[in-house]
Amino acid sequence: MCHSAVFAWVGVLSILLAPWMATAQDFERPGLYIAGSWSHLGEQFGDDLNDEVEDALALGDPRLSVGDSDVWSGTLGVRLGSRFAIELMGERYDDLPIDLTVGGTTVSGDLELWSGMLMGKLFLLTGRIQPYVMVGAGYLQGRLEFGDIDETGHLGLGR
After folding, report:
1. Is the pLDDT of residue 35 over 80?
2. What is the DSSP string of 119-149?
3. I want to staple 111 with a disulfide (CB 3.0 to 4.6 A). Which of 18, 93, 96, 153 is the partner?
4. Are 134 and 119 in contact (CB under 8 A)?
5. Cα–Cα distance for residue pair 89/121, rounded to 1 Å
6. 109, 66 in Cβ contact below 8 A?
7. How many CA atoms within 13 Å lie on the side-chain side of 143?
8. Regarding beta strands 84-102 and 31-41, do their DSSP bridges make them parallel or antiparallel, or are they unpaired?
9. Does the pLDDT of residue 42 top 80, yes or no?
10. What whole-number distance in Å separates Cα of residue 24 and Cα of residue 76?
11. How far is residue 90's CA from residue 140's CA, in Å, rounded to a whole number?
């Protein structure tokens, strides 16, 4: 490793571990918090997915293509002390384009997913770095519009 990389890491660690930046109480204070995010998924599946479709549907030499999608998520949480928090989380996967080609015929469609979950967090440490264990349960809904198919499915889930 070159000297400049070592100095860069020392600088980053100094900033993260500097005692003057925050006290331990700043990291464990109770209260409400809100978070949100957006990301863009670039779906890249290999031939393994085609093999799974062929086995599951008994189709000859299928080619399944799943396109890119935007993902939106939000969290509303409350920290109930130094060690515990409760979060209500939601995610939406917006219109994943799907193309299935079998025997030269292509059928296209979209898959839309959203989920809502109630989660509990147990913080193992309460300092600057706070690993945690999270468990919860929720609901997942998916809508598939694919050729002549327009179906909505529901699922209970847990983490």
Report:
1. yes
2. EEEEES--SSS--EEEEEEEEEEEEEEETTE
3. 96
4. yes
5. 12
6. no
7. 8
8. unpaired
9. no
10. 23
11. 10
Q: Find all residues with CB under 8 Å of 88, minimum gap 6, and list them.
A: 75, 76, 77, 116, 117, 118, 119
Contact 50, 59 (CB under 8 A): no
The answer to whether the beta carbons of residues 118 and 75 sit under 8 Å apart is no
Of 10-19, 90-99, 139-148, the one with minimum mean pLDDT is: 10-19
Tell me the torsion sign for CA atoms 159, 46, 71, 57: negative
- Please report which residue ranges of the chain form alpha helices under DSSP H: 3-17, 47-57
DSSP H/E element including 45: none
* pTM exceeding the 0.85 threshold for the entire prediction: no
Q: How far is CA 156 from the centre of its chain?
A: 17
* CA of residue 99 relative to chain centroid, distance: 23
Query: Which residues are 31's β-sheet partners?
Result: 79
Element (H, E) at 87: strand 84-102
Pairwise CA distance, residues 102 & 86, whole Å: 47
Residue 7 — pLDDT band, cuts 50, 70, 90?
Answer: low
**110 against 53, higher pLDDT:** 110
**Element containing residue 157 per DSSP (H, E):** strand 149-158
